[in-house]
Structures are given as structure tokens and as C-alpha cells.
Design goal:
The structure holds 3 protein chains of 3 kinds. Chain A is an alpha/beta fold. Chain A is built from 9 helices and 22 strands. Chain A has a domain of 54 residues. In chain A, a hairpin with a 2-residue loop joins β2 and β3. The radius of gyration of chain B is 22 Å and the shape is globular. Classes of the chains: A alpha/beta, B alpha/beta, C alpha/beta. β21 of chain A pairs antiparallel with β22 of chain B, so a sheet runs across the interface. Chain C: GO terms for molecular function: ATP binding; ATP hydrolysis activity.
């Protein structure tokens, strides 16, 4: 049966008010040749058609109720709409690529001369001019388990490509902003390829206004000994849906340090899969979720140690107020050949309100015997004794609480090497506590 | 059998010394499962109508339920029509459990060989035993002495006849018929098991124990245990299990329900040594068990201790529902898997009452090509102010062909709760073994020393005699695992 | 400065203090001695306003103001300081940052200007030298990973930086070796002035060799049974608390 025939039998194949598949097919026909990726997109549509969007009977989706999302209609923005320049607050470097509603916006972006061997450019531009740099695009093993990755693949029209040739170090921080306007659906695509010994860092800002759907996918490929830092501030609107995916693969000796601070979204979910594919690779995943009334922040991490001598650290923290929910589902999988793996996983939650709810599922699957693996999860409220101690020194109750929350979040901030963002986030935490 | 032959046999069996078959005349229902079989089991046990209705309801529910597939275990689909749901030694039919003198000498010999004397005042003096042989209870010792204090300790079938009001009051209140696939199946076809009632304020003067033995071929064992500790009562209960070595897999789907009222304490210990199959994973028991305790009253306490060393597949999660304020739940577990064994075991601690506390200590040891998973849920509900949980799950790997997995689920809906989970994975290191060897200890002894050290926190929770047994059992199971 | 009248207090519904009367004037050093469980630490915690410690009768006046009405931080801003018996570890909160926040909270309350970072650092460094505390401790989280002695030094450092009107030292000497004990005593003696008062709570006389008190009180079972000059501490050292109907070092409540 053809795709068309199947859809005729079930007009809303994914059970959504927005006709995602129909839109994807129309898009596939309309895209300029370099952006078509026919096989890739057809594969993604096939996956979606066959598996549909997830439901709560699936273990990794049992934390999210997607019914609200299914009922939403989102427009496909054919061109970027004007946005409030304030959404770019904090991005003041010389190298800045801004996407609005999934489209690159030159007027908001800044391009600077880059060292030889470095490409930082919109995906559509790279596809047209240097398609060979996109060889790794969509080279994701088991994405069928991640329907929102497939949804992006079927629908992306632009994104950002970062490509750093072997041995090249890029000192300038690459700033990327993914902005959304009201009622839209955006599927921006990021591809980061660092060849052997290359070094780069990205700061990514996700923001928008009103109700919309943000569906970014980031693919990261690090060559031998490459070093990469990526800081994401998920600062979407509180009425937005975000389903983000990150797929990273590290060759021998590569180091990745991925930081993610999550503040926004009615539902803000990330599915992150990272594979240590070469010996001696090292990954640090740090997360901080600040969940306020009505929000669900949902992080699903899989760190796979495929070979020996890998090291990984996952540390996620949640601070919850109001009727909010934070889910941390982290898996460390150590394959049989991955001897001498050193993997750790921590999830700590601080509940500031009666109705707040924290769920932690730090999981270990270990098939090698000579490994050091540990994980832990804690949930609790502010330490009353510490609070009293601070107050007995003259510090007011509200400030003492803020101090303790900031201290709780502090290790996340300490991991950021950008002092400007550290300060901005500290201020955000204070403002968040007072709001 | 001489001690020497016995130990030789042990070597040949890969450490399983309980794999013999007892030759007794059996009354066995032909394989297959339908409503008539359920009615037949109920009729054989001369059950009242309400219990038959209860079974039928469970059976109908079971037919609608999907087979659970979330556990980290793999096995071919079970053909439920190929299993016989009832097997009993002929001589015991009719008059209920025999008095100790009337037991078939073959069966008595069986239990002697298993080290479980059905004669009072012998080796395990001070332990009352209910012996379940396939589908029926064949003997219960020390009943008279216990009855003096109003304690009821008898087979489940007898409880249905003699104390229907108690059974009806509590049956299915902790594990409802529709709770899960195997619980529903058990509710439909359960044959026998133990029943315990400790009256108000009574401290049970001896350990109560049930010894489960699967003997017949192609049968499943579906026993049901119900223990009720009334206000202020205390009881310590132990179960042990073995089965003959057979090439086919056999199904064991038991349900255990515990109810603790105000200030009552129930301590439930298990030493599970069902036949695990041979070195290549042929045969062995599928141990799919639902165990749950309800801390119904304030300050009640339920403590599960399990030493799981057998079964081809273990799928069990002894759990506590902490409903009473200040109630306490505990779970201490050692699970050892070797060869091709698979274990997915852990606990659930559901905190409902205020200031409820739970402790989880799980020690998994994987050897050979086995897979060993801890799966546990700690849920703090909104009303559970001041709830506390501490979980520790440690895994020890022996060899590079096995797997150790930890799947904790932590769900907290009350800010005043404190929940802590810690887990580590380690191996028995060559350095440790070498260090002990330089002090004159053999490599095998060194391993068992290290493993016993690893399990110490759990063994200390077992009644003393059984702690020694468990330790020996573990040593036996570890033989040949070094290398 | 501090005036306690007929103070009764309980913890978890159990009455611990059963009518305390105590007056401390500016410039004075008072010592309270008593067996374990006599209520000494309860008194310190009641003065500081620890949650869970409830005054059931009587009053505590600090410069004429009723302390019991005030939140712990308000008491601190009024010039009260408690050196904790068991200082709590606060992971992630930088010691220096914490001190600065405290100093400025007190200064603001007094209508003084907040100290800028440099002046503050200079002051803290000078005081840290006084209590022989390595500066690296300032950069670490509050008390985290500190030894028992280091924690107590950190308490004294805070005291010398915050310059309170009244400092209550709750068994600050327990578990200290003689060098650390001297550091504590030097810190207190350096702060002694006609405007400032101290209440030193201790089980042993040895701290009082170094901090000579003006008045010594003996507390047993929640009441002050005797008050006198420094010689009283020496008497107690020789005779123990048996004079007061108690076995050495034990109170009736502790035995129960």
C-alpha cells in the first residue's frame, strides 16, 4: 500500500490536529534539490507512519501525556516572522546565527571571518554550496525510538552547520538562537562535526513568545581528541511545547561537555543519546531544571559506553515550585567490551512546594565486569538546619532560601566557563524564585 | 546416601543438590486451562461458592490481560494449555493435611533429604513447618502449641474450611485479582499454601516456616500465602523452595499477602533455591511471584528479606504499602545468578501515611552468562508528610559474560520527603583475592569471603539458623565461578 | 544587656528549662556550667531562636527588647551571636560569600553602609589571621569537609567579623585540643570590651582558664542552682556536680 493509500484509510495518521505527514510530503516535493535528502526524509516519514507518535504505554514516554499536544494546531511558517529583538538578550558575540520559526534570518545574525577549515553557516547555504559537509546528517542509529527526531527529519528546512577541520581551534564562541513566534511549528536542525583534534564551543539560546511548538534536533560528531562544549539555555515561552533531541557520538579521546539549563515550556522535553564510540572518550552532561507552576520538564538521557576506558558524568538538578513536575530518566549502558569504564550519574531534586513532583529514574545496564559505575538520586526540601544557621547570622529568610537554592544550583553554574552566562543565570534564578 | 556420594552428585549437578524426584502416586489433573479446570480445583478442595466465584472472576480477568514484557528477562512464550494446574500425592487427598504420623514415608524421606524435618523437637526445634508438596500442604507441625496462644498456622485449604470469615475478610485485599497477569492466574488456580493469623498482642513464640517442593512433572505450582498480624502482634516467617531437575521449564506463580495492623510486625524471609536449569539454560523454574505487604495500622512494620539463588527466571518484587502513619517497610535482598539464569527483582515502597519510613538494601551478584537486574519503585504520595526512604543497590560482577542492571524509579509528590538512592557496581578484584591469598586463604574461600562481606547487611536480617544456611548455599552456588 | 526572667522552655513538648533568671550587663563574661542534659544548650538555642525550641513562660530581653518575638536573623542583626555546638555543613555556599552577606545584613540594619568587596576582604583576612585560619578555608563551602576544630574556628572567625554585642558560645570548647582552645579564647579575649558581653556555656572548667569569667552559674535540671565568681568553676572542677545531688557529669534527666 502506498503512503497515500494508508493515509486515506486513516486521515489523521498520527492522531494530531496538525497534519504533520501531509505537511512533510508537501514539503518534500517543494524543497530545492540540495535540501531534499529524499531517502532520509522518506525513511523518517515511514517511521512516523508506522509507529505514530508515542503513547504512555511506551516505557520512555510514560512520563508525558501527549493528548494536549495532539489537539494543537500549529502553522508552518513559510518565512520567518518578525520577532522581538529582546529575545536575543545575552548573545553579544561576533558570531551569531539566528533562526526564527526554523528559518535563518540574516538581518539578526552576525557573521565574521573564520579561520581556514571552519564552517559555521546556515544549513540551506551549506547544502547548496558545500554539500559534502553534510555527509553525517541523519546518520543516527536507532532514531525510530525517537519519533520527534523523525518528525524533525521529515520537516526541517534549515538549521546551522558547524564544521571544524582537523586540528583547528575556533576561539570565538558560536552563538545560535532558535526563536519561535506565536502559533508556529519549527524544526531547526543543527549539525556539529569536529574532526580529529578540533576544538569549538557553542552557546545556544531557545526562546519564543506565546504558544508554539519547537522541535530542534542536534547531531554532534566528534573526531579523535576533539574537544567540544555546548551550553543550551532552554528559555522557551511557558505556553510552548518543546520536544528536543540530541544525538552525539565521540571518537577516541574526544571530550564533550554538554550543559543544559531548562526553564521554559508547558512541556519541555529532551531526548539525548550519547555514544562513547572510541577508547578514552569523556562526556560530561550537566542539567539544571527550574520548573514552575504548570510545567513539566522532562529529560531522558542515554549514555552508551561502547568501548573500553570511557568516562562519563551525568549530573542533573531540579528545583521545583508550584504544581510542577521534573522527570529525570538517565541510562548508563556499558557494553561488554567497555571494560574500565568509569560512569556516574546523579539526579538531585529540591522541592519548594507541596504540589511539586519529582521523578528520578537513574538506570544502569552493565555488561562488562571491570567497571566503576555509580548512580544516585535524592529528593528533598531545603535543609531546615542550614536555613536556621544562615538566619542566625542575620540573613533574612527569603535571602537565606535563595542562597541555598543558588548553592544547590551552584555546581551547575560552576561548570559553565562563561562568566557572563553564570551571572545572567544567577540573576535568573533569583528572579525565578521571586516570581 | 553417603556424604561423599552426595557431594560428588553436587559437583555433577553444578551445585544443585535438591534435583531428585520422589516416587509417589499422584493425583494429577490433565494439562490445560479453562473454567472447568478452575471449577474442578475448587471442587477438589470443597470450597464455598464465594471462593469459586472469586476464582472465576480472576480467570476471566486473566484471559483479557496481556503478558507483561517490561522486565529485563527473555523466554519463549509459555503455553498455558500445556501445564497441569493440580497435582497432589494420592494418599493425602480427602481428609486434608495428614497428622505427622500419617504422612507417606516417601514424602517424609523427601523432606528429610531436603533437611526439613517434619518431626517436632528435632534439628530445627523451635521452628514450625508447613510442608507444601506440589499443590497441597502435606503436614504442619507444632499446631497444637501455637493454638494455645490463639495463633492459627495451617494450610490455606484448611483455613478456607475452618476460618472462612478470616480468609474472606483479607483474601485479595493486598493483591487484588487483577493486580497483574500472574497474580490473576494464581487467583484463578491457586491450590494451597499457608495461612497465618496472629491475634492481638501475641508475639509468636517460634519461627513459622513453609517449605515448598515441586515434584510432579509438567505441573505448575500456584500457592497462596496470607499472613495477618493483628494489633501489636509479631511474627517471623520463613519460606524455602526446591524442585527436581527437569529439562522442561516449570512455572511457579505464587501470591503472598501480608497485613499488619497497628503496632504489628511481620518479618518475612525467603531462601529461594528452585532448580535453575543446567549450565546451558535448559530447564529450570520460572519464578513469577507477587508478594506484597500492607502496613495497614499505625506504627506497623513489614520487613522482607530474600536470598534468591535459584530459578531459571526470577520475577518478583516484594513490596510494602505503607498506609499507617509511622509505619515502616524494609527490603533486604541478595540475588545470585550464574550460568544462564535471569533475575529481575526488587521492591516497591508506596508511602501513603505520615512519617513512614522505608529502607532498601539490594545486593546482586552476577556470574557466568547470567543477567541480574534490580528494579525498584519508591513512591511518596502527597499525604506522606515527613516520609523517608533510603535505598542502596550494589552489584557485584564475576566474569565478563554477565550483566548487572539497576532500574530504580523514584517518584516524590511531597516536599517534606527525603529520598536517597545510591548504587554501585564493582567486581571481585584480583588484588583483593591476591591479598587474601597472601594471608593463606584459598582463592575460592577468598571469593566467598568477599561475597559474604558484600551480602552481610542482608544476611544479618535473616533468622540465625537460616543466615548460616544462606551463607552455605551461596558458597555452594559460587563453586566454579572463580576464574 | 540580656535579661532573662523566669524562663521556661520545652522541646518536643518536654520541659527542659524550668525557670531561669539571668542578667548580663555590658562588658561582662558569664559562664554557665552544668552536667550533660541540664539544659545549657537549650538555653543557647532559645536565645538564638531555633525552631522547635519553645519558650512556654517568662521573657528574654535584649537591650530592653523582647527577643522571643524576633526571627533568628532579626536577633542576629540586633547584635546577638551564637557559636554553634555542631556547626552545620552547607555544601555549595561559599564561606566568604556567606560572611559578606551576613555582615552586610547587619550593617544595613544598623543604617551603616555596606562594605565593598575590598574592605570586606581586608577585614576578613585580618580576622582570619587572628584565629589562625588558613585563607583557603574562606573559599570553601561553609564548614563542608572541615574538621571539628576547623568548624569551631570558623565560628569564632564569624564572631570576630560580625562583632556582636552579645556572643553565646555553646560548648565551643568540646572536642578541641589545647591549641584550638587557645585560638577560641584569644578570639573571645580580643573582642572583650566594655560594650560587649559573652555567655560561655561549657561542661569543663579548662576553657575558663583562658577566658576568665566575671560570673559563673551552675545549671542543673533546667534551673540555675548557684552563681558565684570565677572560683566557683574551680570548685566544680574539684568536687564535680555531686554537691548538687548529681553523680559526676550526669543530670537526673540524662540518667532517665
Amino acid at each position: 500500500m502506498s503512503d497515500d493509500a494508508k493515509r486515506a484509510a486513516a486521515p489523521d495518521a498520527l492522531g494530531c490536529a496538525t497534519d504533520w505527514l501531509g505537511r512533510a510530503e508537501a514539503l518534500a516535493a517543494a524543497l530545492p534539490a540540495p535540501l531534499r535528502f529524499d531517502e532520509l526524509r522518506a525513511g523518517a516519514r515511514g517511521e512516523l507512519l508506522q509507529r505514530g507518535l508515542p503513547n504512555r504505554r511506551q516505557e520512555v514516554w510514560r512520563t508525558v501525556d501527549l493528548n494536549g499536544f495532539r489537539a494543537q494546531e500549529f502553522a508552518a511558517a513559510a518565512a520567518p516572522r518578525p520577532v522581538d529583538a529582546a529575545l536575543l538578550d545575552g548573545l553579544d558575540g561576533a558570531l551569531r546565527l539566528v533562526l526564527v520559526d526554523g528559518h535563518y534570518v540574516p538581518s539578526l545574525s552576525r557573521r565574521t571571518a573564520l579561520p581556514a577549515g571552519v564552517t559555521v553557516a546556515p544549513l540551506a547555504e551549506v547544502a547548496a554550496e558545500r554539500p559534502q559537509l553534510l555527509a553525517a546528517l541523519g546518520d543516527v542509529p536507532a532514531w525510530n525510538a525517537e519519533p520527534f527526531s523523525a518528525l524533525n527529519t521529515a520537516n526541517f528546512t534549515d538549521g546551522v552547520v558547524v564544521h571544524v577541520a582537523a586540528g583547528v581551534q575556533l576561539d570565538e564562541t558560536i552563538e545560535i538562537a532558535l526563536l519561535s513566534s506565536e502559533d508556529t511549528a519549527a524544526h531547526p536542525r543543527l549539525l556539529v562535526v569536529l574532526e580529529a583534534g578540533a576544538n569549538a564551543r557553542v552557546t545556544e539560546l531557545q526562546r519564543g513568545r506565546g504558544r508554539y511548538f519547537s522541535n530542534p534536533v542536534t547531531e554532534i560528531r566528534l573526531g579523535e581528541g576533539a574537544q567540544y562544549r555546548h551550553f543550551v539555555l532552554q528559555d522557551e515561552s511557558r505556553s510552548a511545547w518543546q520536544f528536543a533531541s540530541v544525538h552525539a557520538e565521540l571518537a577516541a579521546g574526544a571530550q564533550a561537555s554538554l550543559h543544559r539549563c531548562m526553564l521554559g515550556g508547558l512541556i519541555g522535553r529532551v531526548d539525548l543519546t550519547l555514544t562513547l564510540a572510541g577508547a578514552g572518550a569523556n562526556a560530561t552532561l550537566e542539567g539544571l531544571a527550574l520548573a514552575a507552576d504548570g510545567q513539566l520538564l522532562d529529560s531522558h538521557l542515554t549514555v552508551r559506553h561502547a568501548v573500553a576506558h570511557g568516562e562519563s558524568r551525568q549530573t542533573f538538578r531540579g528545583v521545583l515550585k508550584g504544581k510542577s513536575r521534573h522527570v529525570f530518566d538517565g541510562l548508563i549502558r556499558v557494553e561488554q567490551d567497555a571494560q574500565k569504564t568509569d560512569a556516574q550519574q546523579q539526579c538531585r531534586n529540591l522541592l519548594l512546594a507541596r504540589m511539586a513532583q519529582a521523578q528520578a529514574m537513574p538506570r544502569l545496564e552493565i555488561f562488562a565486569d571491570d567497571v566503576k559505575c555509580a548512580h544516585g538520586a535524592t529528593v528533598g526540601e531545603l535543609d531546615e538546619t542550614a536555613l536556621f544557621y544562615l538566619r542566625s547570622r542575620g540573613i533574612g529568610e527569603a535571602e537565606a532560601k535563595a542562597l541555598l537554592v543558588r548553592a544547590f544550583a551552584g555546581e551547575f553554574l560552576d561548570g559553565l566557563d562563561d562568566a557572563g552566562w553564570r551571572e545572567r543565570l544567577e540573576a535568573r534564578i533569583d528572579a525565578w524564585l521571586e516570581a | 546416601m553417603s556424604a561423599e556420594t552426595e557431594s560428588l552428585e553436587r559437583l555433577a549437578d553444578g551445585g544443585y543438590a535438591y534435583g531428585f524426584v520422589t516416587d509417589v502416586e499422584q493425583d494429577t489433573v490433565p494439562p490445560g486451562l479453562n473454567e472447568d479446570v478452575v471449577r474442578l480445583i475448587s471442587a477438589k478442595k470443597e470450597e464455598p461458592q464465594w471462593l469459586l466465584d472469586w476464582r472465576l472472576e480472576a480467570f476471566r480477568a486473566w484471559q483479557q490481560m496481556p503478558v507483561p514484557d517490561w522486565a529485563n528477562v527473555h523466554y519463549p512464550p509459555i503455553d498455558y494449555q500445556a501445564i497441569s494446574y493440580y497435582a497432589a500425592p494420592k494418599k493425602s487427598i480427602g481428609e486434608g493435611p495428614a497428622s505427622l504420623e500419617d504422612i507417606d514415608p516417601e514424602i517424609k524421606k523427601t523432606y528429610d533429604r531436603l533437611g526439613i524435618p517434619l518431626v517436632e523437637q528435632e534439628f530445627l526445634a523451635g521452628v514450625a513447618v508447613d510442608a507444601v508438596f506440589d499443590s497441597v500442604s502435606v503436614a504442619t507441625s507444632y499446631r497444637g502449641k501455637l493454638a494455645e496462644q490463639g495463633i492459627i498456622f495451617c494450610s490455606f485449604s484448611e483455613a478456607v474450611r475452618e476460618h472462612p470469615e478470616l480468609v474472606r475478610q483479607y483474601l485479595g485485599t493486598v493483591v487484588p485479582t487483577r493486580d497483574n497477569y500472574y497474580a490473576a492466574l494464581n487467583s484463578a488456580v491457586f491450590s494451597d499454601g499457608s495461612f497465618v493469623y496472629i491475634p492481638k498482642g501475641v508475639r509468636c513464640p517460634m519461627e513459622l516456616s513453609t517449605y515448598f517442593r515441586i515434584n510432579a512433572k509438567n505441573t505448575g505450582q500456584f500457592e497462596r500465602t496470607l499472613i495477618v498480624a493483628d494489633a501489636g502482634a509479631y511474627v517471623s516467617y520463613l519460606e524455602g523452595c526446591t524442585a527436581p531437575m527437569r529439562d522442561e521449564n516449570q512455572l511457579h506463580a505464587a501470591v503472598v499477602e501480608l497485613v499488619a495492623m497497628d503496632d504489628a510486625t511481620i518479618k518475612y524471609s525467603t531462601v529461594q533455591n528452585w532448580y535453575p536449569g543446567d549450565k546451558d539454560g535448559k530447564g529450570g523454574i520460572y519464578n513469577f511471584v507477587t508478594k506484597r505487604g500492607l502496613c495497614k495500622g499505625a506504627r506497623s512494620k513489614i520487613s522482607w528479606t530474600q536470598v534468591e539463588t535459584g530459578s531459571a527466571i526470577t520475577w518478583k518484587y516484594p513490596s510494602c504499602v505503607l498506609r499507617g502513619d509511622d509505619s515502616v517497610g524494609e527490603f533486604y535482598s541478595v540475588a545470585l545468578t550464574r550460568d544462564c539464569m535471569q533475575a529481575d527483582t526488587g521492591t516497591k515502597m508506596i508511602h501513603m501515611g505520615k512519617n513512614t519510613r522505608s529502607t532498601i538494601v539490594s545486593k546482586g551478584i552476577s556470574a557466568g552468562r547470567s543477567q541480574n537486574a534490580y528494579r525498584g519503585l519508591v513512591r511518596i504520595l502527597p499525604g506522606a508528610d515527613g516520609a523517608r526512604n533510603y535505598s542502596q543497590c550494589d552489584s557485584l560482577l564475576m566474569g565478563d559474560q554477565c550483566g548487572a542492571h539497576t532500574f530504580p524509579y523514584v517518584e516524590v509528590q511531597n516536599p517534606s520527603a527525603q529520598v536517597e538512592h545510591e548504587a554501585t557496581t564493582s567486581k571481585v578484584s584480583d588484588d583483593q583475592i591476591f591479598y587474601l591469598q597472601t594471608r593463606g586463604i584459598s582463592a575460592e574461600d577468598a571469593v566467598s569471603l568477599i561475597v559474604n562481606g558484600f551480602c552481610k547487611e542482608v544476611f544479618k536480617e535473616l533468622p540465625m539458623e537460616f543466615a548460616v544456611e544462606a551463607q552455605k548455599l551461596l558458597e555452594l552456588k559460587l563453586e566454579g565461578s572463580v576464574g | 544587656m540580656l535579661e532573662i526572667k523566669n524562663l521556661h522552655a520545652s522541646v518536643d513538648g518536654r520541659e527542659i528549662l524550668r525557670g531561669i533568671d539571668l542578667v548580663i550587663r555590658p562588658g561582662e563574661v558569664h559562664a554557665i556550667m552544668g552536667p550533660n542534659g541540664s539544659g545549657k544548650s537549650t538555653l543557647a538555642n532559645i536565645i538564638a531562636g531555633r525552631p522547635g525550641y519553645e519558650a512556654t513562660a517568662g521573657e528574654v530581653l535584649f537591650d530592653g527588647k523582647s527577643l522571643l518575638e524576633l526571627a533568628p536573623e532579626e536577633r542576629a542583626r540586633e547584635g546577638l551571636f551564637l557559636a554553634f555546638q555542631y556547626p552545620v555543613e552547607i555544601p555549595g555556599v561559599n564561606n566568604l560569600y556567606f560572611l559578606k552577606a551576613a555582615v552586610n545584613a547587619v550593617r544595613k540594619h544598623r543604617g551603616e553602609e555596606e562594605l565593598d568587596a575590598l574592605d570586606f576582604l581586608e577585614k576578613v583576612q585580618q580576622r582570619a589571621g587572628l584565629v589562625k585560619m588558613d585563607e583557603s578555608f574562606l573559599k570553601r563551602p561553609v564548614n563542608e569537609g572541615f574538621s571539628g576544630g576547623e568548624k569551631k574556628r570558623n565560628e569564632i572567625l564569624q564572631m570576630t567579623v560580625l562583632e556582636p554585642k552579645l556572643a553565646v558560645l555553646d560548648e565551643t570548647d568540646s572536642g578541641l585540643d589545647i591549641d584550638a582552645l587557645k585560638v577560641v579564647a584569644d578570639g573571645v579575649n580580643a573582642l572583650r570590651s566594655p560594650e560587649r558581653a559573652f555567655l560561655v556555656i561549657t561542661h569543663y572548667q579548662r576553657l575558663l582558664d583562658h577566658i576568665v569569667p566575671d560570673v559563673v552559674h551552675v545549671m542543673v535540671d533546667g534551673v540555675i542552682v548557684r552563681s558565684g565568681g570565677p572560683q566557683l568553676a574551680l570548685e566544680l572542677e574539684e568536687q564535680g556536680y555531686s554537691l548538687y545531688g548529681r553523680a559526676e557529669g550526669e543530670s537526673r534527666r540524662a540518667q532517665a
